[in-house]
Design a protein that fits this description.
The structure is a single chain. The chain is mainly alpha-helical. The chain has one domain (about 20-285). Helices cover about 75% and strands about 0% of the residues. It is built from 13 helices and no strands. α2 (about 40-65) packs antiparallel against α3 and α8 (about 160-185) runs parallel beside α13 (about 250-285). The longest helix has about 35 residues, at about 250-285.
């Protein structure tokens, strides 16, 4: 009998993991290309962010001039300017407004096709949102900061860990925001029309997330309860406080650690709600 190599090709244990990572990366790239298509909208949105940056910056600087010691809530003028202009740059990166895709697909019934795919809706939409955030970071973050640096003195980070913590904080804020938006959109599984919850999210996320003004201007007890009891301050307030170096290194790390906790919590809640919704769809015959 002719002796030949009888070895049988086997799948590596890392094969499924690598395939999952490749698929997730492909979905991120798809989300990036989707938003990269709208170049004029990107330019218009950047211009709008810069215009509103001037309005917000002058208002907060006026507040600083009228405060005792010119340090409202512990921010000096440079930190307030950095807070405003970094916030304008992060607005499109975090993406707290405008996402209704899940609710729309539930209302039209297209979500049934998503449930037949090998990747669940939470993972697929998360990857697409990370691609959107990456596009916003590369195209719309720098312009407001540059405009602010030209016309206002901005705070330059004095600690080496601030910039890495800021980058991690942004990534966690994107994940937290996605989880919040997913839960708000998922109310359409039960309500059929999620416009009410989406409107409440639009109104509340900006105010309680730290977009319009630093939450530290509010009473300390209320801010602490808001920070620990809700994920909203982790959307913008935390990354902006990190880059402005409002707090010491230990507090900076603690705030980012709290963000990590909220990111894990929101993803788990999104997955739980999605599983409950799928059982509801089965009962309804969907």
């Amino acid at each position: 009998m002719d002796q030949r190599d009888a070895s049988v090709p086997t799948i590596s244990r890392l094969g499924p993991f690598r395939a999952s990572v490749a698929t997730f990366g492909a979905l991120i790239g798809s989300g990036f290309r989707r938003y990269a298509t709208y170049r004029q909208a990107t330019l218009a949105g950047t211009f709008t962010n810069v215009v509103f940056g001037f309005l917000r910056c002058y208002v907060l600087l006026a507040v600083a001039e009228g405060a005792a010691g010119n340090m409202p809530a512990g921010y000096d003028a440079e930190q307030l300017a950095t807070y405003v202009w970094a916030g304008q740059g992060l607005l499109s990166v975090i993406g707290i407004w405008g996402w209704t895709e899940l609710a729309d697909r539930i209302r039209t019934g297209d979500i049934a096709a998503d449930l037949l795919r090998p990747i669940g809706p939470v993972t697929a939409f998360l990857a697409a949102d990370l691609g959107r955030a990456l596009h916003g970071m590369l195209t719309r973050f720098a312009a407001p900061l540059l405009a602010g640096a030209i016309f206002f003195p901005l705070h330059t980070p004095a600690r080496w860990q601030t910039v890495p913590l800021f980058a991690v904080s942004i990534a966690l804020a994107v994940i937290i925001c996605f989880g919040c938006k997913y839960l708000v959109n998922a109310t359409a599984y039960w309500l059929q029309d999620a416009r009410g919850p989406i409107m409440l999210w639009t109104l509340g996320s900006g105010v309680l997330g730290g977009l319009y003004f630093p939450l530290r201007l509010l009473p300390d007890g209320f801010v602490t309860a808001l920070w620990l009891g809700t994920p909203l301050p982790s959307l913008l307030q935390t990354p902006l406080d990190v880059i402005a170096e409002r707090d010491g290194p230990v507090t900076q790390i603690a705030l980012v650690a709290l963000q990590l906790l909220w990111a894990v919590t929101m993803l788990l809640l999104a997955g739980l709600v999605q599983r409950r919704a799928e059982r509801r769809l089965v009962v309804q015959g969907g």
